[in-house]
Amino acid sequence: MPSPLADRYRDRLPLGDATPVVSLGEGSTPLLPAPRLSERLGVELWLKWEGSNPTGSFKDRGMTVAVSMALEEGAEAVVCASTGNTAASAAAYAARAGIPAVILQPAGAVALGKVAQARALGARLLEVRGSFEDALDAARELARRGTHALVNSLNPYRLEGQKTAAFELADDLGGPPDVLALPYGGGGNTRAYALGFEELGAGRPRLVAGEAAGRAETVATAIRIAEPTHRAEAEEAIAASGGAVVPLSDEEILAAWRDLAHLEGVFCEPASAAGVAALAKERPEPGARVVGVITGHGLKDPEAATRLSPPPVAVDPDPDAIAEAAS
User: Which strands, in side-by-side order, build the sheet including 77-81?
Assistant: First the structure.
């Protein structure tokens, strides 16, 4: 099928005329105004809704390029370590390409919705008795043997695809925003946005990255990464932009998660709210044009939504009883 991302930005991607582009229709995601949160924060806030990508997260931007290049280079399969979103994306794009996907996940550390996605898409899921870093080391070693292409963000093609979100923001806004706020897990997405804005040459926004203060233990499972793979490059880009890494408690992340849902109608997984949570602590200049990147759909982590939201109330099928219960 046509690829909105590859068709729109092929001249800025490593895709050649003969590259077999593997696409599920990724990219060109909505940029939503956030009027109520704008008023609260005193800024012009927009939400880059990456949960509308095919597998429900921003990872699809990089995966279309990584798997396309893996096919062109003759890989027999793909492999990744993942806390969830990379797994679902790798599984989907490998299935689309007609090659196997091997997913290594740290035991007990991945949200149910993401595990279900990868299983349903036919990936081979293996639970590693250890941390994400242990799983990633094993994936890298398997890739070094030559049959499997590593599709974690260490693969440079991943960042090439992910940088297209910066191009879209500049196209939609007529230039870069003043501030870009996003979750900080492994640091690859922060690095990719910085790369994209640098390539545009139209100025870099101030980067505000929200990280879970308890990196190895947090309700925000998508950023439950104790040792960010791209820490040096991401934090160098943040510092160069005059930005900040903002540590957040789970309570602060969940407050932003509820605000996005209740005030703006955007249902994301908890980790995806970290950028907006960071804005509440690291206040931008009044009136600044700000983009909050919402990285993944709320259905990625249905257990969190069920656990953290009020349960339904039982009522009789009577209008008066219903009106009383609803008040």
Answer: 124-128, 101-106, 77-81, 148-150
